[in-house]
Structures are given as structure tokens and as C-alpha cells.
Design goal:
single chain, 492 residues, alpha/beta, Alkaline Phosphatase, subunit A, Arylsulfatase, C-terminal domain, 3 domains, nine-stranded mixed β-sheet, globular
Length: 492
């Protein structure tokens, strides 16, 4: 029997989850009983934001505790790999004596077409992950070998899956069509099963941190089987910031079409909720559920028609805000919904705080446990997000408790989020709000100045390194000559 009273850690990560589309968040149609139960048994942060509304930059920030302007990932690069020398939260968690596991979509790197994720196990190990099962998103699956592609081939479903993805690549990522696979064979379902397998095989006297990362509900709109018909589009009331026509590329969608798309999106969320419940049941059978820190979140959101957009890449709440729930019996308040600001990179210090570990040098973010436990009302007076606009330049967001402000070249937006939660009235266009944008610009300037990663933090001057090499502060020229001779003899 283990005498280690520290919690197990379960991170339930989703991809492109609109924070409004959950039962506990107030959606009257969606069915997410298991996620809602996490909120009832824990604390939900209703003003949590991603540091970048794009998959790869956000995910690299989550594991590194760094902003995109620190680690340099601004978009979903095709041939870049998150550098292991920057460190990761998994390495620090492992140093604290935990088993570490990742199951699902990581997107910390992209494989060249035709390569196998199994050949990258040394990479996962280097960033601190002992057990890794990569299950990529639907669009990447046909181009790379993975546990999911092997599974589909073993059950005779590979051809149907490949043809379905090919159709979507031709017609667009938001084409509405149920998956040809049964629900238990969907990629999100394999994430759930592999996460359960890890928990069942982990001895109860081993503390673990499991990153279970579902590829959904990110497009395609491919809810499988009964999940494709679980929600009646006619019962869905669209929010007021969805216009009559939503444009995505060359495609245009009416409000009725948006209801059907949202119903399918809801189905994908419901499938993830189902597997969250099964993972929770496994922890209950294991006997460690009451001492498990659970963090439910997403890398970023999804517009799902808001402001006439599909996808992410903007600072509207549907895209930049994320769900964030913390559950830890006895340490986190139950049934609380807090307006305290939070950032997705707060996950890293929150976990290290909970397990008594030490973050690597130069990490940003702040532990959310003081808020979740009731020790304090807030840990941020502002949070930030940033994204590269490519040739169009950089875009930045500042969110304070009441206001949201963002800029891009030639554009400025300011919203009172208390009175205008759907961001319908841009106050930056009004002449009587000049002081607020000025304050936000100053906050952004201060943020960029104070959040630079110190690459020289471990620099030792030459004179210091020489004395270290001699092993003494009391050194003489003759000893240095002996050292020089030895070094050059070894070189010869």
C-alpha cells in the first residue's frame, strides 16, 4: 500500500471546443453529463483563455509554460518539432516521481508523410513521457502511420475511413456527413480505450499523470452512428452573433445549415463526454478517484458560425476562450463557477503545485489552486493571447475582468464583456472610450517586456567556467597551463 498521499493527475484535453457548448456552461440542448459532474464536483473558470487560438502553438505553450513569442511556434508548421531543450511540464512531473503518459493527439510535432509515430518514442521520452500512444486527428491519420491507422486496418475499416477523409479533403473540412465508422471505432473512442488501458495497467502504488487528448470535436463534422442523430437541429437556438449567412472559403451556409452543423458538432462533444465518463469509472474501480486532480480543458475554441466564421484563429470568445474545470476532492471547492481570469499555460504550474514539484526555470503561468481552493479570488489582473497573421502582421489580445481588447494591423476592437458577452458592439469605434484602449496598449507593452524568456539565465562567464574547471577558487597561472596542456594532449 502506497504512503504517497499526493494525487494522481488526469488531464482531459479536447481540441477546438467552443466553451459555450457544454451543459454546465448553460447550453440548453447539449448533453454532457460527465463533464457537468466534474463541474459540480469542482471549480470551473468561466474566463479562461488560450494563449493562441491555433492548435500547435497552444499545445506547445501548454507543455512548455511559454508563450508563442517565447517558443516561436505561431502556426501549424509542417516540418517543425517542439524543441526538447526547452523542457516540458512532463519532465518536471516525472522528476517529482510520477509516471507520465500521453494518449491521443499531441501536435507538438508533425510527421513527414508516410512516417510512423512509433518511431518517435525517443522524442516522447526526452520531453518526459514514459508511455505514449499517438492518435492523430482525422485529417492527419491517412498520411501517417499510427496506433489508430493500425487499428482501422486490423478491423477492416481502413478503406472506408480513407475514402471518407478523401471526400472531405475534396469538398472542405466543414462538409456535413456522419462518419462511416461505428462510434466505438471513432478516433476519439480509441483515445478513451487506450487511456483506460493505461490506468488499468498502472499499479495503485504508482502516482501517475495521464494526458488523455481527444482529437475532437475539431472538424470534420463526422459524428458517428447514433451520435450523428442525437440532437435535433430544430431544437437548437443559435446565439445572436451568428449572421444569416456564414462564409468559409468559397462556401456559404444559412442559419438552418448552421443548426445542422452544430447538431453534428454536439454529437462529437457527446461522444467525448461518454468516454470521459468511462475513464472516470475506471479510476473509481481503481480506488483512486477521490485523490485525483482532474483538469478538463481545450487548446482553443471554435466559432461554429459566430461572427460569420467557422474554425478558430480569432480572439472572439468562441475561438479564444476555453473551458477549464479543476476537480480535486478536499482541495478544490465544489460547485463553484469563478470569474477569475485564467490562461491555458496555468495548467503546468497548477499540476506542479498540486504534486509538490518544481517547474523548470523561466516558466510563465500561475497556479490556479489558490483560486480553486478559495484561498484567493484571482491570480491574474489580465490575460493575453497572440497569433501571427503571416504577412499581415501580428495580432494581440488583452482580457481584463470586464473588457476585452485586441489589435491587428489596421484594426482595433474593444468590448465590455459584462454588458456585451456576444461582442456585438465595438467600443473602439466610439470617441468616448479613448482611455481604455490606451490602458490596454500599456498592459500589452508591459506583458511583452516582462514575459521574455531569458536564454542567458545559466550563462557562466569564461573566468567563472575556468575556475570551476580547476575545482577551486584559489588558482594560479601554473595550474591553468597544466590544464591547457592536458586538454590539448587529449585532443591529439
Amino acid at each position: 500500500m502506497s504512503t504517497d498521499n499526493r494525487p494522481d493527475v488526469l488531464i482531459l484535453m479536447t481540441d477546438q471546443l467552443n466553451p459555450h457548448c457544454l451543459g454546465y456552461a448553460g447550453d440548453p440542448v447539449i448533453k454532457t453529463p460527465n463533464i457537468d459532474e466534474l463541474a459540480r464536483e469542482g471549480t470551473s473558470f468561466n474566463k479562461a483563455y488560450t494563449v493562441c487560438p491555433v492548435c500547435m502553438p497552444a499545445r506547445c505553450s501548454i507543455i512548455s509554460g511559454l508563450y508563442p513569442h517565447n517558443h516561436g511556434f505561431w502556426t501549424n508548421f509542417t516540418d517543425h518539432v517542439f524543441p526538447t531543450e526547452l523542457g516540458s511540464m512532463f519532465r518536471d512531473i516525472r522528476h517529482a516521481g510520477y509516471r507520465t503518459a500521453h494518449v491521443g493527439k499531441s501536435h507538438w510535432f508533425n510527421l513527414p508523410w508516410g512516417d510512423d509515430y512509433a518511431d518517435r518514442l525517443d522524442y516522447y521520452s526526452t520531453i518526459g513521457i514514459e508511455h505514449a500512444v499517438e492518435i492523430p486527428g482525422p485529417y492527419m491519420t491517412p498520411f501517417c502511420k499510427s496506433a489508430y491507422s493500425e487499428h482501422l486496418q486490423s478491423v477492416g475499416l481502413w478503406d472506408a475511413y480513407a475514402r471518407d477523409i478523401a471526400m472531405r479533403l475534396e469538398k472542405g473540412q466543414y462538409v456535413l456527413a456522419p462518419s462511416p465508422l461505428p462510434p466505438d471505432e471513432h478516433n476519439d473512442s480509441l483515445v478513451g480505450r487506450k487511456a483506460i488501458e493505461f490506468i488499468e495497467n498502472c499499479p495503485t502504488d504508482h502516482r501517475f499523470c495521464l494526458h488523455a487528448s481527444f482529437p475532437g470535436p475539431h472538424s470534420p463534422l463526422d459524428a458517428p452512428g447514433e451520435y450523428a442523430d442525437l440532437f435535433d437541429p430544430k431544437t437548437i437556438e443559435l446565439p445572436p452573433n451568428i449572421p444569416d449567412v456564414v462564409k468559409s472559403g468559397a462556401n456559404e451556409y444559412s442559419r438552418d445549415e448552421m443548426k445542422r452543423m452544430r447538431a453534428n458538432y454536439y454529437g462529437k462533444i457527446a461522444l467525448i463526454d461518454h468516454w470521459c465518463g468511462k475513464i472516470i469509472d475506471t479510476l473509481k474501480r481503481r480506488g483512486t478517484w477521490d485523490n485525483t486532480l482532474v483538469i478538463f480543458t481545450a487548446d482553443h475554441g471554435e466559432h461554429m458560425g459566430a461572427h460569420g466564421r467557422l474554425g478558430k484563429c480569432h480572439f472572439n470568445d468562441e475561438s479564444a476562450r476555453i473551458p477549464m474545470i479543476l476537480r480535486w476532492p478536499g482541495r478544490v471547492r465544489t460547485g463553484q463557477s469563478t470569474p477569475a481570469l485564467a490562461e491555458v499555460i496555468d495548467i503546468y504550474p497548477t499540476i506542479l503545485d498540486a504534486i509538490g514539484g518544481t517547474p523548470s526555470f523561466g516558466r510563465f503561468g500561475t497556479s490556479l489552486l489558490p483560486v480553486a481552493s478559495g484561498e484567493t479570488d484571482s491570480v491574474h489582473d489580465a490575460v493575453f493571447s497572440e497569433i501571427s497573421g503571416g504577412k499581415k502582421g501580428m495580432r494581440y489580445m488583452v482580457r481584463t475582468p470586464q473588457h476585452k481588447w485586441w489589435i491587428s494591423p489596421g484594426q482595433e476592437h474593444l468590448y465590455d464583456m459584462d454588458s456585451d458577452p456576444y461582442e456585438m458592439t465595438n467600443l473602439a469605434e466610439r470617441g468616448d472610450c479613448r482611455d481604455l484602449p490606451r490602458d490596454m496598449r500599456q498592459r500589452l507593452s508591459d506583458f511583452l517586456v516582462t514575459s521574455q524568456y531569458d536564454w542567458a539565465h545559466d550563462y557562466i562567464p569564461l573566468f567563472g567556467r575556468a575556475r570551476i574547471a580547476m575545482g577551486s577558487e584559489e588558482v594560479h597561472a601554473e595550474k591553468f597551463v597544466e590544464l591547457f596542456e592536458k586538454l590539448h594532449q587529449d585532443a591529439r
